[in-house]
Each structure stands twice: as structure tokens, then as C-alpha cells.
Amino acid sequence: MIKLFVYIICLATFVASQTATFERKVERNAIVSAHDAKVRVQLPDSVQYVGADRWNLYDIADCELHAFVDADAKKNVQRLYWVQFEGYLPSKPDLRHQYDSPRHTTIGGLDFYVDTWVRPKDAETQRVRTASTSKS
């Protein structure tokens, strides 16, 4: 199931990358963002970059996703790393997130909500939110 999901992401990002312009830069196993937040996201040395996508989410937010995988010797995906940046469109300056979490962290001077779930390899997939900004 994960292999199929990663294949679909790769295919979609290949097609999307033909026209999309990405604001973040990928340097081997890291993503460098110069703004919103100014941050370097460093992933394990073992990951492979599989691509990116950028889209307009419900005419509200600009979304940029970067995907990495950690695969075994047989090229079976063991871990998927999904790093997503979102920002409200300039045409929606009054919008704010109404989501909260008991855990927060500060990255690049911005406050982020932190929600993570861990599950066994064969467990049913559930929605995972790792960090979403509380300030735009």
C-alpha cells in the first residue's frame, strides 16, 4: 500500500513539477526555506528525495509539499517523510487558523503546533499532522 502511495506521489509530482515553481530549495536530504519560516529541515542521511508539488488549496492557501522516502535494499518504502509549507494567499489577508494543540514549538521565530501519531508498520493508516503554523 505504501509503495503504491509513493508511486502515485512520484508520478503526480513529476507531472506537477513540469510547470510548478518551488520556493523552497532541496539540498540532498534537507529542505531550505528562506521565508515563512526561515528554516532548514534536515532529514536522515538515508532518505531519497522523490519530488515536490505545489497547489492552490481551496482558493485559500498556497501549499508546497516535498516528499522523501527511506527504502530497504529491495526498494520497499520503510518510511515516508512529507514536509508541507502552507501560507494564506495574499487575497485572503484576514484568515487565521482556528486549530490548537497542547504542544507547540518555535522554528525560525514562528510558533508551530506539533501533533504526531506513531503506528505499527501494519496498522491502519490515520491522519497525521506533524507541524502546522499557528501564525501567518
Q: Any overview of this molecule?
A:
The protein is mainly beta. The chain has a domain at 2-96. 12% of the residues lie in helices and 41% in strands. It has one helix and nine strands, in the order H-E-E-E-E-E-E-E-E-E. The protein has one helix spanning 2-17, and strands at residues 25-27, 30-33, 39-42, 48-57, 61-71, 77-88, 104-107, 110-114, 131-133. The strands form three sheets. It has a three-stranded antiparallel β-sheet, with no helix packed on it. Strands 4-5-6 form a three-stranded antiparallel β-sheet, covered by helices on one side. A hairpin with a 2-residue loop joins strand 1 (25-27) and strand 2. The N and C termini lie far apart (35 Å).
For the largest beta sheet, what order do the strands appear in spatially? 1-2-3
Annotation, overall tally of beta strands: 9
Query: What is the helix/strand order?
Result: HEEEEEEEEE
Uncertain regions spanning at least 5 consecutive residues? 127-136
Task: Sum up the overall morphology in one term.
Answer: globular
Q: What share of the residues does DSSP label as strand, in percent? A: 35-45%
Distance between the termini: 35 Å
Helical content class: 10-25%
Q: Tell me the major beta sheet.
A: 3 strands, antiparallel
Rg, please? 16 Å
Q: Total number of helical segments?
A: 1
Question: What is the averaged pLDDT score?
Answer: 79
**Structural class of the helix and strand makeup?**
mainly beta
